[in-house]
Amino acid sequence: MSFLKKIPLHVQILLALFLGTLWGAFFKVDDTAFDIKAMVENQKVEMEISDWTYIQLNGKNYASNDANSLYKDLSGKLPQTIIVVYSDHDKKTYQVSEIKKQDTFATIIRPLGALFIKLLSFLAIPLVIASLIVGAASLDNIKKLGSIGGKTFLIYICTTAIAITIGLTLANIIAPGNQIPDEIKANMLSSVNQESPVNIAQEMEIDLLDFIVDIVPKNPFKAMSSGNMLQIVFFSVMFGITLTFIEKDKSKPVLAFFTGVSETMIKMVDFIMYLAPYGVFALIAATIADFGFEVVSTLLWYILTVILGLLLQNVLVYSSLLKFLGKYSIKDFFREIRNAQAIGFSTSSSAATLPVTFECVERMGVSKQVSGFVLPLGATINMDGTALYQGVATVFIAQIYGMDLSIVEQLTVVFTAVLASIGTAPVPGVGIIMLVMILQSVHVPPEGIALIMGVDRILDMMRTTTNVSGDAAVAVTVNGIEKNKQRA
Question: What is the three-class DSSP state of 44?
Fold first, then answer.
């Protein structure tokens, strides 16, 4: 174990990513083998289903190469009756009450990855509260807080708008949906699940006024327990500002307490990061074992378009921010942010990565005043990677359906994606839910989400890396602007 201490953490994490990928690929989950609990001849049994030719569910036949669709349709509404036809033409009927894919040496270690995410996540809220209160209370006046807040919000909105524009531009130029042969398109559309996205879509709509009102928590403790980051930010900033209006001898011990909490949380991050290589290994191995690489071939152009857009957002947009506004070395930034990027990629959660991002930006000289305000806000409203992906996905799905989106419709996508990013929770997979709302805004069938679900987890990891990088880039930029203003 001692030799690991000599290896830089980011190298350990990259090595864990590589080895986890190999481990997951080698111990891949067999999509056609299921463990079920069922009623057979009026008896409850637990058994394995494998080596089947096709399975009939609700009058529809599923072949073994469509096992994932079967699993999704069957596990969604249990109990259900299935008829299994085995390779020897033997038929059996089961009343299934529970179904799951069989574990492998790659998936049984998933709890280690889940533990790592939980350890990071449980630090995020107390760290945000303590950092924001100390940061807001230590600012000279409300005007300065308003200056930092205004710059932060404006830059976040601008980078998100640029990200969605990059996504739409690339999707129109590369046209990933048009690269797929018509025969494969027809097969993809025929396999689309017609239920779940519609149900989600019916529950979602944008109400800007309600969104603003909801920022104010009715019960701050409920906001903390539910992880509502915007409400937590509002409460903490108000608390910190109010401390500046009371007598110093009364505010000083409160500030000392929250300063101690902040420092303690940062030290806990140091301890937890010792587990990072093992947690990352478990997360990546389980993900690759579950999803594999087979689905990549069909959606290759779509995946490449998203990846290219994310690279452009990082290399061009964030680098320009740092160079021209933040006056900070681009090379130093990407060197220092490596740990946060690796954790963001592994966990697919900018909230879980938040404690690590705090450490990274403070090593770059960002004051606690700025990092304590900018990063929690960014983890909530700055979803550049998610917005870019949503732009590409919207055009891709429209192309699969043979639809051409007009300029007005694409501008609608930009506006809707920016608003959606503000309300997007910083947790894995939420981008796919917000995409439903965007598709509806331009009348693209939301059922088309099923076309890209197979690769969403992999792309989720990549776009979270961009989200985390964007949070850090804005924190460094705002800090640089404030320093330059003080010098002037």
Answer: strand
Whether the Cβ atoms of residue 377 and residue 462 lie closer than 8 Å to each other = no
Radius of gyration of the chain (CA): 24
| Nearest C-alpha neighbor of 224 from the set 133, 152, 157 | 133
Per DSSP, the residues of 222-268 read HHHHHT-HHHHHHHHHHHHHHHTTS-HHHHHHHHHHHHHHHHHHHHH
Residues 6+ apart with CB under 8 A from 111: 282
- Three-class DSSP labels, 55-117: EEECCEEEEHHHHHHHHHHHHHCCCEEEEEEECCCCEEEEEEEEEEECCCCCCCCHHHHHHHH
Q: Which of 93, 99, 100, 102 is closest to 57 using CA atoms?
A: 93
Residue 195 has pLDDT above 50, yes or no: no
Q: Measured between alpha carbons, how far is 4 from 281 in angstroms, rounded to an integer?
A: 15
pTM of this prediction? 0.82
Return mean pLDDT, the chain: 84
Lowest mean pLDDT among 92-106, 272-286, 444-458: 444-458
In tens, the pLDDT along 124-150 reads 889 888 888 887 887 656 777 778 888
Q: Are 471 and 353 in contact (CB under 8 A)?
A: no
Closest CA to 167 of 380, 342, 405: 405
**For the CA atoms of 414, 421, 159, 441, what is the dihedral angle to 10 degrees?**
0
- Report residue 441 CA to chain centroid gap: 22
Task: Tell me how far apart the alpha carbons of residues 123 and 9 are, in angstroms, rounded to a whole number.
Answer: 20
Tell me the pLDDT tens digit for each residue of 89-109: 788 888 888 888 889 999 999
Integer distance in angstroms from the first to the last C-alpha of the chain? 51
Q: Which of 89, 88, 86, 84 shows the shortest CA–CA distance to 74?
A: 84
Count other C-beta atoms under 10 Å from residue 51's C-beta: 12
Element at 37 (helix H, strand E): strand 34-40
Burial class of residue 231 (count of CB atoms within 10 Å of its CB; 0-12, 13-18, 19+)? buried
Q: How many residues does the chain have?
A: 488
